[in-house]
Amino acid sequence: MVKEPLFTVHWSLHARANLKDIYDYIKTDSPQNAIKVVGKMVRLSMSLSYLPFRYAECPELPTKNKIYRKVNYASYKIVYRVKRSRVEILSIFHSSKNPEKLKALRKVKA
């Protein structure tokens, strides 16, 4: 029996652009790996519709309700926000980037 998701997942335009950039970057070396990596990121994000709070709070974006979370995959971090019955994918970034830039994600619309 398949359970109905409790949350809907929405991608911000910023996160969609990040995903395309990641695909384009990896594709230059290996189109197959680009498909594999991007596909895994999409599946990970869609799995958040069931248990969005299972991943760690994003320490760069602390809140009282701990709504900002992140999923680590390979060298990337998927940063998302949980609001009511929505999971909003805000950004995907390489872990070597400056985490201070994450603070701007509070203003991203999904």
Number of strands: 4
Oligomer state of the chains in this structure? single chain
Q: Are there runs of 5+ residues with pLDDT below 50, and where?
A: none
Named CATH architecture: 2-Layer Sandwich
What structural class do the secondary elements suggest? alpha+beta
CATH superfamily: RelE-like
**The CATH topology is what?**
YaeB-like fold
Strand content: 15-25%
The CATH top-level class label: Alpha Beta
Strand order of the largest sheet: 1-4-3-2
**Share of helix, binned:** 25-40%
Give the overall average pLDDT: 89
Major sheet size, sense and barrel closure: 4 strands, mixed
Note the gap between the termini: 31 Å
> What gross morphology would you assign?
globular
Q: Could you spell the SSE succession in H and E letters?
A: EHHEEE
Please count the helical segments. Answer: 2
Estimate nothing, just give the exact number of structural domains: 1
Radius of gyration: 14 Å
Describe the protein in words:
The chain is of the alpha+beta class and 110 residues long. The chain has a single domain, classed as RelE-like (YaeB-like fold, 2-Layer Sandwich), CATH 3.30.2310. It has helices spanning 13-27, 31-47, and strands at 8-11, 68-73, 76-83, 86-94. Strand 3 (76-83) and strand 4 (86-94) form a beta hairpin. Helix 1 (13-27) packs antiparallel against helix 2. The radius of gyration is 14 Å and the shape is globular. The N and C termini lie far apart (31 Å). The mean pLDDT is 89.
List the helices and strands and how they pair.
Elements: E1 8-11, H1 13-27, H2 31-47, E2 68-73, E3 76-83, E4 86-94
Parallel strand pairs: 1-4
Antiparallel strand pairs: 2-3, 3-4
Helix pairs in contact: 1-2
